[in-house]
Design brief:
InterPro entries: YdeI_bac (IPR016786), YdhG-like (IPR014922)
Helix content: 40-55%
Pfam families: DUF1801, OmdA
CATH architecture of the largest domain: Alpha-Beta Complex
Strand content: 15-25%
Protein name: YdhG-like domain-containing protein
Organism: Leeuwenhoekiella aestuarii
CATH topology of the largest domain: Aspartate Aminotransferase, domain 1
Number of helices: 7
Distance between the termini: 60 Å
Number of domains: 2
Structural class: alpha+beta
Length: about 200
């Protein structure tokens, strides 16, 4: 089925919210957004970028704003579907057609369009890997608190260099030797490879 056919099939399906979704669609049609079909739902784009979409569930339906966290939400209508997990996505949720205020929705859509034209987006943060401190380094910290303090003051990149340098040694004596050589550098606040860098 081609994209336009999928869109029409979506809006022709019989369900409790059919009339309400058609009302929302009519509001979207008054904008410059392009209607497409992704993730089994109508999605509205500008210059190929997702701006908003429609979705229906068992007990409610709504409008998704892909960068909804940037919207002013003057009417306090937006919800974060997964608090603490969802950074940008926000939804305007309805349980019946009578709750739809076309003027309010149009204002939110125009703001979302304006934000998209300005290039405003919320980028997903890259997951931060927890640094794994080798056993030998941990033992050295417990014997030498100033060493741990100096290590904690290093940049995450330098901490990683030292942790991998000490932890990657296959033999015990090599780990100890590496730790012994690294200790004065850590205490001086230097990185493992600083002497090779132009700084």
């Amino acid at each position: 089925m081609t994209n336009p056919n999928k869109i029409e099939a979506y809006f022709e399906q019989e369900h409790n919210f059919k009339k309400a979704l058609l009302k929302l669609r009519a509001v979207f049609k008054q904008t410059e957004l392009i209607e497409s079909f992704k993730w089994n739902s109508p999605i509205y784009t500008l210059d190929g970028k997702n701006v908003a979409g429609l979705a229906r569930f068992k007990n409610h339906f709504g409008v998704w704003f892909f960068n909804g966290a940037l919207l002013k939400d003057a009417e306090n209508r937006l919800h974060n579907a997964q608090e603490g997990k969802t950074k940008a996505l926000r939804q305007m949720r309805f349980e019946s057609e009578s709750e739809i205020d076309s003027e309010i929705l149009q204002a939110y859509l125009q703001e979302a369009i304006a934000n998209q034209k300005k290039g405003l987006v919320i980028k997903a943060a890259k997951p931060v890997k927890k640094l794994s401190i080798p056993v030998k380094l941990k033992a050295a910290f417990s014997k030498n608190p100033p060493l741990q303090k100096a290590f904690n003051a290093l940049t995450p990149g330098r901490q990683k260099e030292y942790a991998e340098h000490v932890g990657s040694a296959k033999q015990e004596k090599t780990r100890l030797s590496r730790l012994e050589k690294a200790t004065p550098l850590i205490l001086e606040g230097k990185g493992l490879h600083d002497k090779y860098k132009n700084c």
